[in-house]
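Protein modeling request. Please complete all fields; requests missing the sequence field cannot be processed.
Requester role: graduate student
Desired output: 3D structure, token encoding
Chains: 1
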Amino acid sequence: MTSALSRPQVQGIFDPATWTVTYVVHQGVGSSCVVIDSVLDYDPKSGRTKHTSADKVIDFIRTNDLQLQWILETHAHADHLSAASYLKSKLGGKTGIGEHITEVQKVFKGIFNLEPAFKLDGSQFDYLFKEDEEIRAGDLIGKTLFVPGHTPACVAFQFGDTVFVGDTLFMPDVGTARCDFPGGDAKTLYASTRKLLSLPPETRLFMCHDYPPSDRAVQFETTVADQRAKNIHVHDGISEQEFVAMRTKRDATLEMPVLILPAVQINIRAGEMPPKEANGIAYAKIPLNAL
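Delivered output (291 residues):
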């Protein structure tokens, strides 16, 4: 029988502008908690940021008298800016991401020609998690699962019967993540999906995004059993060769995410803005004809 400690409480906070779900994982009023994949609101037309989505997370944490221990990222997102730095400034806690973020930093420091002082050791984050490394937040105990393919740095976080899969999987009627970003690889993603789908069938899987068909509402929780039976890209019986052919063909038709250029250069900094220039303004770079 599943114990209370192995089945954490999960609050999903959906951001409709980016189709992103931020999760607060906890064990009830007064407990420690972790936040996974937070969102900083960003207007690409004006370059202005706001905290509407992040403030909903803060309100939930304060209302339930939770103590924030970790602010976790499943990867350096290309479709939204992280609010990790803002949450840390308001509630404390440590930022964490998988240790292979250093590979992503190296690639994008070159693409964006970032300042020489930008370090490639992941030190912008408070902690870099290794494969299967334990995560503790009070009595809440989890571990890190490496699931590369969408990016080389993708991880999932498992707490008891619950796994936060990042962009590796979407809801069964949506499929899987794209693999055409720098360092992405469809063959690697297939292996990562099988890793997740080898967990017990009743394991709860929480998506980072949902892009629903027009005939259903937004959903972001499913199970291993449901994914193995129904996922349109990786249900049981789909071979690696079939998946790679499908994913490669599909990725060739996709446009870049609207926020990829500002998002990645902020997110590899753990949500911090680039250094302000001599006029007191921070700038996000737009490399022309580079991606």
